[in-house]
Amino acid sequence: MKLVISKRLIFFLIPVLALLSSILFALVQVQKLQGTLKWVKHTSNLIIRLESMTLNISESESLLFGFIMTKDDTFLKRYNETVESVNKDIENIEKSLSVNPVQIDNFKEIKKLVRKKLILQNEAIRFIKTEALTIEQTMLRFNLGRTYLEKIKKIKQVMEAEESTILDHKQNASNEDIKKTIYGVLFSFIASCIVGFYLFIFIIKDIANEKKIKDNLIEINENKNKFFSIISHDLKGPVSNILKLSELAVETKDQEELRKINEMIELSSRKVHVLLSDLLNWASIQMNSIKISPKSIRLNELVEENINVLSDMANNKNIKLLNETELSTIVWADYEMLSTVIRNLISNGIKFTDLNGYVKVTSKYQNGNIEIYVSDNGVGMPPEVKNKLFKKDITYSKAGTANEKGSGMGLKISKDFVEKNGGTISVESEEGRGTSFKIVFSNRN
User: Fold this and answer.
1) Where are the domains of the chain?
2) Which one, of 408, 352, 403, 402, lies nearest residue 230 by Cα?
3) Burial class, 3, CB count within 10 angstroms (exposed 0-12 / middle 13-18 / buried 19+)
4) Which of the ends of the chain has fewer CB neighbours closer than 10 A, N or C?
5) Contact call for residues 269 and 26 (beta carbons, < 8 A)
6) Which PANTHER family does the annotation name (predicted)?
């Protein structure tokens, strides 16, 4: 018996670990992409600051020329302000320099030339004020300062080229990471599904009762079809989207466009992540292997956390997400399970609510129980659909108001999670008037 249990545990751990590994791998690659975006921002800031410094030096030169020719103190005042801007630019550039020794040496040379030029310009001002030199002699020193500006511009161009080279290298590395993510997720997911399928077969062979064997074989076949249906339909979309976006990322050179593509890749990766999590939860429920760790939960904070997660989804349809739960409401349940239930119900409300609608979560104490409501003013549902929602032998899935697709597993998972925590879930709905899900837990506080 122990040997059988050990084998089952091993078979179960293989797909779970594979799924978790693929999710972790995808998240690591997303973090790398975010690192590239940070470098893009760093490079842009450095180039902007170098350009600002160069323009300010040129402006100081022009203002000095005006002072030499007119001896008007207005030019001198503006000149001093511009020199202060040059010094600030130098300070900002030094703070934003990378650890690249080449860039550090290049900027040291620029800084040295700037100091020499400013010394010449300040001497020219002093000579004009004291009339120690003629205007012609002062202009000779002024023109010498111009040669320093040309040298500064040349070194600035070298620094910009160096930054572009580093950035190109990081972009190429990011494109490779994107491909690795796609192949890694696909391989891990398919391998997990195959192992998971054989896991069900293995368990069925251990059942002694012939009738139970027959019933479980039918169920396993349905589960297999559901597995591969989700793989071929729900997973194909976001993964194909990631592949197309990665190909586009390889071709594009525009930094803003690359940033938008990376954001879309991250969004599609999160969709895959959510689907994989649902599949993992569904498989765990089928195996009755989920461990419950109940604790006191502040409902208002949990709801707010999930509203933040789903805000982008709601914003796409201009739907308001309202957290009207009592601040004092405490629920005794497994945090992750309850969070999954609330997230699934809010997501379901967004899916079946038209533009400019709302989804709200409320709570109250009633007859010694805690009641949680997730309501919307969406399209609602007829009685025949409502009666199918929580039936174990029926998987019901319908496109949302914006043609959103789903696996049909969310409400089943929610029902199982609520019941495993000692609660009940029900639904009230009227076609064209909206839907309200009600969760009831006993008050243990």
Assistant:
1) 1-289, 295-442
2) 408
3) exposed
4) N
5) yes
6) HISTIDINE KINASE 1 (PTHR43711:SF1), TWO-COMPONENT HISTIDINE KINASE (PTHR43711)
Pairing of strands 330-334, 358-366: unpaired
CA distances from 264 to 271, 277, 428 (A): 11, 20, 36
Q: How many CB atoms lie within 10 A of CB 361?
A: 25
In one letter, which amino acid is 110? I
- pTM: predicted TM-score of the whole model, two decimal places: 0.45
Q: What dihedral angle (degrees, nearest 10) is formed by the CA atoms of 241, 187, 20, 15?
A: 130
**pLDDT tens, residue by residue, 209-263:** 556 656 656 655 655 555 555 554 456 556 777 777 788 777 777 778 878 877 7
CATH fold of 295-442 reads Heat Shock Protein 90 (3.30.565)
Contact 185, 240 (CB under 8 A): no
Give the integer Cα–Cα distance in Å for 336 and 292: 9
* Separation of alpha carbons 384 and 403, rounded Å: 21
Is it the case that residue 318 has pLDDT exceeding 90?
Answer: yes
The CA distance from 28 to 13, in Å, is 22
Q: Which two tokens stand for residue 325?
A: 């739960």
- Report the distance separating Cα 57 and Cα 83, nearest Å: 7
- pLDDT category at 2 given cuts 50, 70, 90 is very low
Rounded CA-CA distance 305/324 in Å is: 13
Mean pLDDT for all residues in the chain: 77
Distance CA 326, CA 329 (A): 5
The answer to whether 100 touches 128, Cβ cutoff 8 Å, is no
**Which tokens belong to 226?**
């559901």
Mapped onto helix, strand or coil, the DSSP state of residue 289 is: coil
Q: Which amino acid does the sequence have at 284?
A: S
| 245: CB partners within 8 A, 6+ apart | 178, 261, 264, 265, 268
